[in-house]
Amino acid sequence: MAADPTAADPPAHIATRIGRRAGTWFPLVVLAAGAVAVTVPGPFLSLAPAINPLLMVIMLGMGMTLRGADFAVVARRPVPLLIGVLAQFVIMPLTAWCLVSVISLDPAIAVGVILVAAAPGGTASNVMAYLAKGDVALSVAMTSVSTLVAPVATPLLVQWLAGSYLPVDTLGMFRSIVQIVIIPIAVGVLLRRFLPRLVDGLVPWMPTVSVAVITLVVLAVVAGSASAVLVSGLIVFGVVIALNGVGLLLGYGAARVSGLDEAARRAVSIEVGMQNSGLAAGLARTHFAPEAALPAAIFSVWHNISGSILASFWSRRPPLPR
Q1: What pLDDT is stored for residue 322 in this prediction?
Q2: Range in 45-54, 64-73, 212-221 with the lowest mean pLDDT
Q3: How far apart are CA 221 and CA 247, in angstroms?
Q4: Which of 41, 112, 123, 255 to pair with 142, CA 20 to 30 A apart?
Q5: What is the CATH number of domain 47-316?
């Protein structure tokens, strides 16, 4: 019997369609959430204790999407991956340090700028790399490897570059990253290995879940630092725009100087410029003052806007073969 053309779409197709729309509107949703949290912070202050558990949900979803093929690029093309990951943990932290050294900021906010710069790549960068006609496999590998390196690299970088502003609990930050990032990713990988049918049903919904979770995180972070937003918001926004812009530009430059092809240059540029700002916000709330999470909250909004603009520009210019 012929299929009924009016029958409902399979759940996976519905989830994919909703996720695509959620991703399209994500920057505006997060921007609106930030505006609401600044205007009426009270109702969202109770979300603060949930920030880290919410981030663990995103990392669980990342783990469920990882496959062995995502790491095959490590063996096939170690040089581009090494260049990208080094650029990630060199360009952004040093840029942040330079910015906070020349611009007078509250110590907690200065630490927050360095913290978001020292965070690993964000998963949204993989989508932007795809839209920009970049090397998606390299982008995914960079996100995965930088995330796995983060428990060691991020605390050490923050200690080195931000220790003069506020005391840094390096070991405590290491433990937090393991708890927020490594354990949920490991659980996600195990779920994919032993319960693949369950994971196949859940994965299409993860983009929508991620948008919802990051929105809640922004509500909590901005509400907790609403007074700082009103006092220093414009300055911090300018610093964040500069940090993101320099990361995108120098990421591309580092890949070009290293002789990578155009598709890889685009992937490295986007990967370096787009950070896991949610993780930075969670670490800032846990180990520093609430104001330290403000740069991460603003970065969460801005890097999706700038990434979308850059991806749209590159999408109309297919990379030429070498």
Answers
A1: 58
A2: 64-73
A3: 24
A4: 112
A5: 1.20.1530.20
Q: What is the structure's pLDDT at 1?
A: 44
Domain residue ranges of the chain, discontinuous segments joined by +: 47-316
Helix extents (H) in 132-205: 136-162, 170-177, 183-194, 196-202
Closest CA to 151 of 125, 187, 179, 114: 179
Do 258 and 196 touch, CB atoms closer than 8 A?
A: no
Q: Are 90 and 273 in contact (CB under 8 A)?
A: no
Residue whose C-alpha is closest to residue 127's, from 62, 77, 185: 62
Residue whose pair of structure tokens reads 């490991």 in the numeric block: 186
Q: How far is CA 250 from CA 38, 243, 271, 300, in A?
A: 33, 11, 11, 20
Q: What is the pLDDT of residue 173?
A: 94
Name the residue type at position 54.
L
Count other C-beta atoms under 10 Å from residue 190's C-beta.
13
Which 3 state secondary structure label does DSSP give 258? Answer: coil
pLDDT of residue 290: 81
